[in-house]
Amino acid sequence: MVLKIESPSSACSRRGFLKTAGVVSAVTLTPWSTPARQALAKSPNERKRFALIGVGGNGTRTSPVGKQFADLVALCDVDQRHLDRGNGLLCEGKADLTSDYRDIISRDDIDFVQISTPDHWHAKILIEAMLAGKDAYCEKPLTLTIDEGKLVRKIQQQTGRVVQVGTQQRSSFDKFNRALAIISEGRIGKLKRLVVGIDAGGWSPEIALADVPKELDWDRWLGPTPEMAYRYQKDARRDDKNYTNGHTHFRWWYEHSGGKLTDWGAHHVDIAMLGIAAAGQNNDPVSVDGTAEHDVEFRDGMPLQDNRYNTARAFDLNVAFADGDVVMNIRHDVDNGILFEGEHGRIFVNRGRLVGKPVEDLENDPLPEDAVAKIYRGMPMEGNDRPAHWANFMHAIENRSQPISDVHSHMKMLNVCHLAGICCRLGRKIQWDQASESVIGDELAASMMKRDYRAGYEIQL
Fold first, then answer.
1. pLDDT tens digit sequence for 75-89
2. Residue 124 has pLDDT above 70, yes or no
3. Please, are residues 174 and 387 in contact by the beta-carbon 8 Å criterion?
4. pTM of the entire predicted model
5. Counts of helices then strands in the chain (DSSP H, E)
6. Which value, to the nearest 10 degrees, does the dihedral of the CA atoms of residues 250, 254, 258, 263 take?
7. Which helix (H) or strand (E) element contains residue 413?
8. How many CA atoms lie less than 13 Å away from 7 in the CB half-sphere?
9. Can the peptide bond before residue 380 be classed as cis, meaning omega within 30 degrees of 0?
10. CA 67, CA 17: separation in Å to the nearest integer?
11. Alpha carbon of 29 to those of 21, 65, 146, 297, 387: distances in Å?
């Protein structure tokens, strides 16, 4: 069923955003630079219009930042509860509503879309949106498979659409970009080892079958992924906790995601690989090896149990690169963040800390004034973290240029995460050829670079 309010004049206003600004007060207080203030000062007729596709928790957290730069005019979700909540929270009840993203991308009065659906829908909606002439801000991970990434990149090049991936750590100037600048300036020397901590994956008991909520279109929620029965149950010990193969917990099912490896991995592996490049070293991956633990048994890469979370809970994986002097260790059992170890020192960075002797040494030997700006490709550095990431996206739209989290560099990183997942599922070393972007010497592993789409949910090219 499609639910709509047809009048485009019902756009969420800037005034409406300010009334609900309490949920994003930290970012609304960000001191913006002149270009960003000019964008905010545009008249309603000049401001761009966008739609939010996927109005769950992440969509409602991130779209208020986008509303600082453009008008949110429409919401799309397959769960009526999400639509109703999002409409009230984000748009004073005035948004156009639909359960079908095609209603969104076919509209001429929408300039770009924000895609905040579960992972398994990202590539299909993004590709069809680009083909429909829409720019896009798409949450990570961009794809469910390696081959989807190849198609996304092809369509982006073909259409010239601007796509910003929601890896907002690339727009952190006080921590992540500063860490990369320290590396780029040679303060820790040639990199030897990186340790990427992304925490353990989710655990569940056996989850009972349940009735699909009447507000949820479960078939459309599954979309391109295999048909499966809906499961949901409360935690017997905690009323505020549940287990499901649907909302929020989709990331613990390989059918819909890649677990921690594509969840936090898409953030921290990203910064780690940028660090290798910043050191002037070759970050082309050549292999992934290591160990992993699951709560279900696997055979030929497929889980044999369908009622428990099945992505890797624990892992100790080593990624080798074309520069044979550096190795990346991806683990679940160390501090969340990235440890860079070089010939002359080491630094650790995450969203709360940037520490290490090379950081302390900056007090007496500061970085060059333009060191962080060089890491940010010389683009305007407006705000910090997610607000800056949206500002960069708008800058790229205005200038028809590549944003800081472009699909091409994102997919090189994400392929490492996908290869790590294949390694975990098969329990053996995976060899990779970057030139051809293919798994080598392992027919079964190579076949896992793609997945079949459920009939009726194929990508429409």
1. 999 999 999 999 999
2. yes
3. no
4. 0.91
5. 17, 19
6. 10
7. helix 407-426
8. 6
9. no
10. 7
11. 10, 11, 39, 49, 10
Whether domain 8-169 has CATH 3.40.50.720 = yes
CA dist., res. 131 & res. 91, Å (int): 28
Residue 256's Cβ-side half-sphere holds a number of Cα atoms within 13 Å equal to 20
Type of residue found at 181: A
Domain ranges, ordered by start, for the chain: 8-169, 171-201+256-384+403-447
Please state, in angstroms and rounded to a whole number, the distance separating the CA atoms of residues 348 and 355: 5
| Cross-strand partners of 328 | 194, 319
Domain 171-201+256-384+403-447: which CATH number of 3.30.230.10, 3.20.20.100, 3.40.50.720, 3.30.360.10: 3.30.360.10
Tens digits of residue pLDDT in 279-310: 999 999 999 999 999 999 999 999 999 999 99
Query: For the chain, how far is it from start to end, CA to CA, in angstroms?
Result: 24
Cα–Cα distances in angstroms (integers) from residue 319 to residues 322, 358, 432, in the given order:
10, 25, 10
What is the residue type of 128?
Answer: E
**Strands (E) located in 294-406:** 298-299, 302-303, 314-321, 327-331, 337-342, 345-349, 354-355
